[in-house]
Write a structure and sequence with these properties.
There is one protein chain. The protein is an all-beta fold. A four-stranded antiparallel beta sheet has the order 3-4-5-6, with no helix packed on it. A four-stranded antiparallel beta sheet has the order 7-8-9-10, with no helix packed on it. Strand 16 and strand 17 form a beta hairpin. The chain starts with a strand and ends in a 9-residue tail after the last strand.
Length: 249
């Protein structure tokens, strides 16, 4: 569906008056239904288009300076085929202060096509959109991610499932590099960092030094990366299993 639910943080949480809903499911003449995650750039809220159906690559946007229930506040852009790639089927988005990165998950198949929007450009102008196939970074299968994290320089893509197995191959982009250059991208297989099967995550959090990967597929093992360490060094990664103390490798 395309029904967006909004809560007024200045209202009482358990009062119906604090809640409002708007059906954005037919914005811009598109079937804008089925999203997974979103991001705020200081003015606009962007909804990340998930897999399935006609809505798969239609990015939905709300202008928070307009009325929430006003159709004029809502817009959509079909970003499903940017730079000749299948840019549909995402799970989450990340904002780095200028660009928004949509996290590749699954479209016709699990993929590593990262979609980027330049917030200094026009939302409806094709020149504001870029795409890069990061699906074979550092010689690894880097497909199937769910959520991402920005640490002030790097964007980390959270590994979940590549179409065959849950995985721990963390993908990283250096925002100081050229988006479409392979030299700006790096991957590390953290799937066996200290404890076996540190794989299958959804979402991440940055605390100012460490990036934490949120466990999803069964194990309960939280994976942590020290941004002051070397990305490709096992010593920078710390897995923790529920009921145990953290170990470093």
């Amino acid at each position: 569906h395309g029904r967006v639910l909004r809560y007024d943080t200045q209202g009482q949480y358990n009062q119906a008056a604090s809640w409002l809903v708007y059906d954005a499911g037919n914005t811009g003449g598109f079937a804008t239904k089925g999203y997974h995650g979103g991001v705020f750039d200081g003015r606009y809220v962007y909804f990340s288009p998930a897999s399935g159906g006609a809505s798969a690559g239609k990015v939905l946007r709300l202008d928070t300076q307009g009325g929430f229930a006003d159709a004029a506040s809502w817009s959509a852009y079909d970003a499903s085929h940017v730079d000749g790639l299948d840019t549909s089927g995402f799970q989450g988005a990340v904002f780095d202060g200028r660009y928004i990165y949509f996290v590749p998950h699954v479209a016709a198949s699990f993929h590593g096509n990262v979609l980027r929007f330049d917030t200094q450009g026009s939302f409806s102008n094709a020149s504001s959109w870029r795409a890069y196939n990061a699906g074979n970074t550092s010689g690894l299968v880097t497909r199937g991610y769910a959520g991402g994290v920005f640490d002030g320089r790097f964007v980390y893509f959270v590994p979940t499932y590549d179409g065959s197995v849950t995985h721990g191959r963390v993908l990283r982009y250096d925002t100081q590099g050229e988006f479409a250059s392979g030299a700006s991208w790096l991957a590390y297989d953290a799937g066996n960092s200290g404890i076996a099967n540190t794989t299958g995550f959804k979402g991440g959090v940055f605390d100012g030094r460490f990036v934490y990967f949120v466990p999803y597929q069964g194990s309960g093992r939280v994976l942590r990366y020290d941004t002051q360490g070397t990305f490709t060094s096992g010593a920078s990664w710390s897995p923790k299993r529920r009921g145990t103390t953290s170990r470093r490798t």
